[in-house]
Amino acid sequence: MTLVGRWIRGLRGAVGFLTRVPIDYRDGDWNAFRTTPTTFPVVGYVAGALTAIPLLAAGMLAPPTVALGYLLAVYAVMGIHHLDGVADLGDALVVHGDVARRRDVLTDTTTGVGALLAVSATVAALALAGLGLAGLSVRTAVGVAVSAEVGTKLGMAAMACFGAASYEGMGEQFTAASAPRSVVAPAVVALPAALLTWPDPAAAVALCGAVAGIGLPWYMANRHLGGISGDIFGAANEIGRIAGVHAGVIAWTLL
Known about the structure:
- The chain is mainly α.
- It has helices at 3-18, 29-34, 39-51, 63-78, 81-94, 99-107, 113-134, 138-162, 170-175, 184-190, 202-213, 215-225, 230-254.
- It has one domain.
- The longest helix has 25 residues, at 138-162.
């Protein structure tokens, strides 16, 4: 298989795994995806553009309506399966016990109060982020939304390249397939997103904020769970996006 052919298969795998966008998913796409971290930010551009469509109505419709449209668009395009990682992480972190006990809770299908609180806070934070975007100009709102999505996908690529898995599973399939040097290409692909609101720095701040936001679940996973798992990738996807959008809105307000 040629390098281009492998990259295309990896992109199909990334779209199929990270979004709900219909795509012709084929055998081998998953393996190509997990060994091609550059596909993470590429999907961020596509998904970010699709979820930002309701923001084109900023200034024409009431901000709460635009914010609701953005919230619904995010979960229509991205799906809600990443929220399962938020829920599992929430349950694991409220449990008293050692790493092994927390891991057991992480993989338990029972939904506890920690999961309910974590998911509720995540959805509320995203809705408020959408409300902030609705108060910006259309160009700035779209630029911030797209750059935040690219940034959170870049953060996931960084987790795959630098992270250590806590046990065999989906997390290990990513971390074992990429070396630290592999993060250079995804970073290069993501950099143009920082210019989407140029000369306003909002997009650049959103991009950096999303990558930084990944650090919260990453730190919690390393400290309390012994490493990264598939649930942590899902939680990072949600938390990074929220951090990026809020950072971009704050930057637009203050700078």
